[in-house]
Design brief:
The protein folds into two domains: 56 residues; 260 residues, Neuraminidase (6 Propeller). It contains two helices and 24 strands. The strands form six sheets. It has a four-stranded antiparallel beta sheet with strand order 3-2-1-24, with no helix packed on it.
């Protein structure tokens, strides 16, 4: 009878602890925001990840070449990135569970700046495989490559939240502006008309606004405009260069790289421009920040270790071995 009670206790405890562990890990994935970025702190560029406080740094790539421009699948299971490990810039995909990578693109020229569509179906990227820079899209399987632009040089594709539009920078008459087109390359529309170059667009999660980097006042800062190109307003005000940015999924924050302290670091700023915070303090260059989807699971969280310890104690109290 005593042994039967022990088995019942162990079984009940096992189910309870498994449930608590899943809940805890889910909370870790959904409640804590993480930022991926590229850094040269090990001599060449690799991709790292940290939480939104600038803590708990993890290195995701460690190849002999340079890796940068991370972009994540919506479910957080895959990361697209750029690497020159095979001699030229190509797009690679990493399985974030196994940390194994394979090459996605293999065309002439250089492929870079991948952007994963929010519906998970496509990866847009920039390539000069025809002699000029154009926007392409490809399925994550490597199938169905499509060229979307056929005129001028085009850079930095960014998907709208509904996966129906792509914003990008285009060089028209030696001036770079932000454009938007349908996901099939149709209905091209110019959004900005400034004398200075506008680059690196990124959408708000509700699709109503676009952030971008520009030198409207003789210095490169982050600006925000409505998705139709109206109501352009300046977000950062600093004499140094502010570069690539990414909008937080809930729209309160923008993460970006900036040369504010004589070195490129990663910063956070409120969308109203009132508060900013420096996240990295390494003497190496930190660049290309982006938000990691909530579906990404950390390998082992501190709280999950605590649950394992509690489970061991419960086993002991129920008569089991540690």
């Amino acid at each position: 009878m005593k042994r039967k009670f022990v088995y019942i206790t162990l079984g009940t405890t096992t189910i309870l602890m498994c449930f608590l562990l899943v809940v805890d890990l889910y909370g870790q994935a959904s409640d804590i925001s993480h930022i991926a970025f590229s850094s040269k702190r090990d001599g060449d560029y690799d991709i790292y990840m940290m939480d939104a406080k600038g803590e708990n740094l993890q290195q995701l790539t460690n190849h002999p070449g340079n890796e940068y421009s991370p972009a994540f699948s919506p479910n957080g299971r895959w990361m697209a990135y750029v690497s020159n490990q095979d001699g030229k810039l190509e797009i690679y995909l990493m399985n974030l569970k196994t940390k194994e990578s394979h090459r996605l693109t293999n065309g002439p020229g250089h492929d870079k700046n991948p952007a994963w569509s929010p519906d998970g179906r496509w990866i847009a990227f920039e390539s000069n495989r025809t002699g000029m820079h154009d926007i392409y899209k490809i399925e994550p399987s490597g199938a169905n490559l499509q060229r979307l632009t056929h005129k001028r040089d085009n850079y930095n594709p960014a998907w709208s939240p509904d996966s129906q539009l792509i914003a990008f920078a285009a060089n028209e008459a030696n001036n770079i502006d932000i454009y938007v087109m349908n996901a099939d390359g149709g209905k091209l529309k110019r959004l900005t008309r400034q004398e200075q170059a506008e680059t690196v667009p990124t959408w708000s999660s509700n699709g109503k606004q676009i952030a971008f980097s520009t030198g409207l006042l003789g210095n490169r800062d982050i600006y925000i405009m409505n998705a139709d190109g109206t109501n352009v307003r300046r977000l950062t005000h600093h004499p140094a260069k502010d570069g690539i940015s990414a909008w937080f999924p809930k729209d309160q924050l923008i993460v970006f790289s900036a040369e504010w302290e004589e070195n490129y670091d990663i910063y956070l700023i409120d969308v109203d421009g009132n508060r900013r915070r420096r996240l990295t303090h390494d003497p190496a260059v930190d660049r290309s920040p982006t938000w990691v989807p909530a579906g990404f699971f950390l390998s082992v969280s501190p709280s999950s270790k605590k649950l394992i310890t509690q489970w061991s104690r419960l086993k002991q109290s129920a008569g089991g071995k540690p």
